[in-house]
Specification:
With 229 residues, the protein is α/β, with parallel strands linked by helices. Helix content is 45%, strand content 10%. The relative contact order is 0.18.
């Protein structure tokens, strides 16, 4: 581990719309986990030029804590992020990655971007305005890049997180070498309801756009199945 942080470091690498908000709600309530003073620092994809000191300044150490952690949603599809993370945090950083059906993820991000005015128009037009909608769902390409630098990444299924949060969190705590704390006292159902509530029937893709999206992401569902088989 790099000397930048005095304790082990864990990083969720995304991508967006795969359930990061649920884990953030959980870890924010744990005194033994140190999160940054903002939801995401966007260091490894946007602010790398500001240096290691800038990144470290977002974390305040606590004596009772045993782990630093950031929950990012934008590093997954950045081509240089794995290299930068390896250089800054070392090879022993604990990486975990939430993934969901690649087509569903792309649609969810499109709908989210529509809500906040980040994109306008139909789905294909939106993909031109914000390529991450489609690009981040190309799991096979991005994972090949990550595995070139890190051999041990803990993957979490979005569907499993919905269906059995306690089991998912128990496995994640084991991977992170921290004690398991039951998530019963967190209102995860409310968070998931909010996430689902962002999907509006009026934003549904046309049959033509859906067929185009499925063609663009052909084979990516097999990549997902291989990870969780």
């Amino acid at each position: 581990m790099s000397d930048l942080f005095s304790k082990p470091f864990a990083l969720s690498i995304g991508p967006q719309a795969c359930g990061t908000a649920v884990l953030r709600a959980y870890f924010k309530r744990r005194s033994d986990v140190i999160l940054p003073d903002v939801e995401e620092v966007f260091f490894f994809d946007r602010h790398i030029h500001r240096g290691a000191g800038f990144y470290k300044s977002h974390f305040t150490d606590r004596e009772e804590a045993s782990l630093f952690m950031e929950l990012s949603t934008t590093t997954f599809d950045h081509p240089r992020a794995p290299e930068r993370i390896k250089e800054l945090l070392g090879g022993r950083v604990k990486l975990f990655c939430l993934l969901r059906d690649p087509v569903e993820r792309a649609v969810a991000v499109y709908q989210h971007y529509l809500r906040y005015g980040i994109v306008k128009g139909g789905f294909r037009e939106a993909c031109d305005q914000a390529p991450q909608i489609l690009f981040a769902s190309r799991y096979s390409d991005h994972l090949e890049n990550w595995f070139a630098y890190f051999s041990d990444i803990h993957f979490i299924s979005y569907e499993a997180l919905q269906n059995d949060r306690e089991a998912v969190i128990r496995d994640l705590c084991r991977f992170l070498d921290i004690p398991f704390a039951p998530p019963r006292f967190f209102s995860f159902s409310k968070i998931l309801k909010t996430l689902r509530g962002r999907v509006h029937p009026g934003d549904a893709l046309s049959p033509a756009d859906m067929a185009w999206l499925q063609e663009q992401l052909e084979g990516e569902d097999e990549c997902l199945k291989a990870l969780f088989s």
